[in-house]
Amino acid sequence: METKMIKKRIAAIAAGLLACHCLSAVAADARQVEVMHWWTSGGEAKSLSVLKDELKQKGYSWKDSPIAGGGGEAARTVLRARIASNNPPDAMQMLGFSVQDYAEQSLLNPLDSVAAKGGWDKLVPAPIQRFSKADGHWYAVPIDVHSTNWIWANKKIFDELKLTPPQTFDELVADADKIRKAGYIPLAHGGQAWQEATIFDSAVMSAGGPKFYTDAMVNLDTRAIGSKTMEKAFEQMRKLRGMVDPNFSGRDWNLATSMVITGKAAMQIMGDWAKGEFTNAGKKPGVDYLCMRYPGTQGDFIFVTDQFATFKAGTDRQPGENAFAEAVMDKGVQARFNQVKGAIPARLDVPSDGFDECGVKSMNDMRAALKNGTMVGSFAHGQAMPESSKTAMYDVVTHFFNSNQSSADAVKALVTAVENSK
Ligand code: GAL
Questions:
Q1: Please, are residues 377 and 302 in contact by the beta-carbon 8 Å criterion?
Q2: The domain 147-302+371-421 is classified under which CATH number: 3.40.190.10, 3.40.50.2300, 3.30.70.330, 3.20.20.70?
Q3: What is the spatial distance between Cα 398 and Cα 233, in angstroms, rounded to a whole number?
Q4: Does domain 4-143+305-355 have CATH number 3.40.190.10?
Q5: What global pTM score does this model have?
Q6: Is the CB of 70 under 6 A from ligand 1?
């Protein structure tokens, strides 16, 4: 009996020692910031090194937790599991409504003091702040602004076939015909729901313009969603489907980009993270490739802003998390990061020097859209509508793209799906 007691006591002391050891490990860990993200393509990974270096300069090391999968679906699933086991990362890449959702659950570290010190309120455009804040408080820090209504084209193919950037959707269809006849794939596409949704962003804008896009995709107005204009957007999708190669299913977005880089395909419709791949491959705009707005969306700006939220994790971790947030918003970081990533800075005071012609165009487009009040969030990347409606729309769009459904039936299905999701 007594020996049993002694054994128990020894076990307790050992556990105590272990806990002690643990604590010191935690203390050491406080100089490290775990960052979860889905930036695993060549261009994406390269841009992150800018942020890693800045964090290092602030005296913190970077614990990398990459979860592959463009658009971030897989990463968000892993995050939910980590939260469920009470072990969230220090910082997580987030899009759109996720920040508000997690802030409402009181899981995020408020960044108000860092934001006040850095003057973020004045530096960040209002449509971007909308996704950084919940209840008037800063909970996320934006690192970039992408836009989705772009076409990336192989210049050699365009020159060979004497093509110029198509100004209307019909011109795009005619160009695609010529490209196919010349033996190239007109459109490089990766058959994943988020990529089809990304194309749909442009199709909806092209069919109806910013007011229609806002009514349908942001305000979820049933009349707009069920309209003839929406039918036109689906008709564009049907024609785009005819431009892809037979092996598109499941292809990652960056592999589709590389088809354009290597001259197998002529074009890709994708957010400007695609430009990060061209840059990473040593390609130059105007020389090797062309960036053009999707026909019918010139001057329009469908934005995606990548932000980082930090999780509440006790006072020992907070300084690291705050240092990370400061690093993200650093003026030099925003310039260097975005020059590699293909995006533009989320703060308005970064000069355009050092950005290529596509970056400068994007900056000008964003400023014009801001002025006109037409800067609209991407449906595909969760910046237009809450998650439940986004998922419902994804299903309809991707089903349509991968079947022979008529545009009229797709519109009806879209109305029902959105109504049920509200
Ligand atoms: C988006 C993200 C972009 C880009 C893309 C592909 O969701 O906003 O920054 O990385 O996914 O991974």
A1: yes
A2: 3.40.190.10
A3: 13
A4: yes
A5: 0.93
A6: yes
